[in-house]
Amino acid sequence: MGGKLIIAGGNLSYCAAMIHRRLIEYAGGADAKLAIIPTASGQDPASTIEYVKELWIKLGADPSNIIVLPVYGEEGKGWREPALGDEGSILNMLEGITGAWFTGGDQYYVHKAFVRKDGSDTKALEYLKKVFRNGGVIGGTSAGAAIMSEVMIASGDNATALSSPILYGYEDYDDSDESGEANLRIVKGLGFFTKGIIDQHFDKRPRLFRLIRSLTDYGSNLHMGYGVSEDTAMVYDRETKNITVLGRGGVYIIDCSKAEKARDIDSVTVKNVVVNVIKEGDLYNHLGNIFLFGDSQLGSKEGIS
User: Which CATH architecture has domain 4-302?
Assistant: First the structure.
């Protein structure tokens, strides 16, 4: 049995109920034990927690089976050792869950809580991955979507991605800088999705080029990127390897396997990037590199170069 990932592009509004209904369905329905993981939402995520909880109850979830993981965002450069995700009480709370939802905010907090300083998985993260492998569902929106991939984009936009050095890791990161970080920063994600790099708020924020540069400069064997529109979710089925779409927007599938780079002093130019866009009703299978748009089955070369 394969698990599911529901990776939402942020700013869920019109399609929020549809996306959360699917999460509850995949988790086992009304009697499923569900976890809200509000870590990205900072030190006071009460309103976010209440929103998700009320929505789940409205969609038929049993309130007694909803838990809120008390792993809140910790500001500053300090790293707790052991990490919050290694606390026994947290692991006990997760026992028996079949679905979990990571809220939006700053993925830095999620990284610090669930990934040890040496880069290894905490016990809580190991357990969540076991839930996924055993047929459960893991979902998240915005920052809660960015953390899904093994390689995670932490900051940056199109302009700086094409003109400034890439930063790696969180060792020098300052979360108190309210102006926002300019440079493209690439760090370790939680690793639920291992087939490419996830990006979110696509369509609404300038992120296409930062995703392309992440794929071409990171130095790994990851050549596929997935940009998820707002009010939209990318659904990944671990067993079939199918990717489908829920919501109003699309999922931009970026193939850099044949990309070529030309460098000069001031910028980076990349050619031979293939872009496909799928929407609700379409399907992409990364194992066979097969696209199914409505009734037409096409290979990835039919995308926009």
Answer: 3-Layer(aba) Sandwich (3.40)
